[in-house]
Every structure is written in C-alpha cells, then in structure tokens.
Amino acid sequence: YIREVFAKARDKAATGNPVVVFFDEMDALFRTRGSGISSDIESTIVPQFLAEIDGVEKLKNVIVIGASNRQDLIDPAVLRTGRLDVKVKIPRPNKQGARDIFAKYLTDDLPFAKEELDRHARARQAVVARLLDLTVEAMYATTEDNKFLEVTYANGEKELLYFKDFSSGALIEGVVSRAKKIAVKRAIGTGEKGLKEEDLVCAIREEFKAHEDLPNTTNPDDWARIAGKKGEKIVHVRTLTPGSEGTREIETVSAGHYF
Length: 259
Known about the structure:
By secondary structure, this protein is α+β, with helices and mostly antiparallel strands. Helix content is about 40%, strand content about 10%.
C-alpha cells in the first residue's frame, strides 16, 4: 500500500497537479523497528516508507504530511532531518482554545432545557455563550473536584495534575456527546427535556472518571508525555477523581495511548 500511495502521487504530480500525501496516526504505522510491539510489521513498512519518501524529495508538487500524538513511538529514521523537515507541535488547548472547540459541538440548534431558554428570553445564542463559559470554567478550574492525578517523581517530589492538563479536542467532543446522553436519559425518566448546565458539568466528571485507569504504558514517563510534561522520571501515580481509590504503582505493560 505504501508503494501504491506514492506511485499515485508521482502520477498526479507528473501532470502538474499539487499532491498532498497525509499519514494519520504515524506512530501506529511507523513504529520503532525492533520494539517487539505488535507483529513487528514495521520492519517492512518503515523501510518502504523511507525509500519512497527519499524518492519524493526529487519530485515537485508533492508534500508529505504526518500526524501523531506519540512522536516518541515513531522510528527515528522517519523523523530524520531531510525527510520530514518541519515539525509542528500542537499543544493542549488553553481555556480560549477549549471554548472554540466546544463551540463546534455545543451549537444553538440543540434542544436546550426550558430553564436555560427562559433565563435568556429564549435567545439561543446567549444560551450557548453562557453554557460555553460555564463549561470551560468548570473543566479548567484548579479546584479539589478537578484534581485528576498525583504523580511522584524519582526525586521524591509530587505534582498534582488537573482535568485541564489532559484536555483535548476528542475529549471535549466526548463531553458534549455524554451531556446529550445525560439529557436524553433524564427526559426518558422524568419527562424533563432539554440540555442544561448540570448535564455538561456532570459529563466532564464522568468523562474523566471513565479514563482514570489509563493509560496502559511502555514506560512510566508516558503519563508525563500524555500531559505534555517532561523531566524527572515518574515512579508512582495516584488517581484523585471523586470516589476513586486508585493508588497504584505503574508497571511496564503493552503499549497504548489515550487522550
């Protein structure tokens, strides 16, 4: 398939058309060779990719783009200078970024609860604006309820990580989807229809609660990478979500990635 993709790219480029070859989840396709993960199929795929991308350098009109949230799992040869030259890191969204993402899923055509509509004289855009502000504030607050993990480093220092440290576009979409389900269940059970503030706040708690046992890692430092933090080696993790008793040592197990 790798050869076929690049063959089509060459054919299109030869006619003067601009061609973009995009690889998503590069860590799944081009893992470090010899890692022993999966069936080591990367031992054949990675060399194919390297041979093809080296050939593309001589062509005009061809751009190769790769995306991954686990750069550390990609074979170093793939990331070597001269192959994928420009590396762009997209950090986790800040409060404004999270609000912008929420706005894509929390729209004014949703069925809102009567109390939400009455509060703003049925002005749907005002309802959305208020819910966006309250939801983002609830997710990014550094309060007791929002504590997610306590990590202990090899030097003995401890650090608290909050919900905001694990925010992502996928998680935000999950929060809105979960809030809708909460509203539907309430409508079925009580007849009270429509989405409201409490649904979104509850969805935030439930979304993080559902992920409290993650990740399964190859290295304890994966928690730091997932949170976008680097530095001292992590030797112990304790989950702090409400109702959790998740004190545990991190052990080396099969690879995976979440959030």
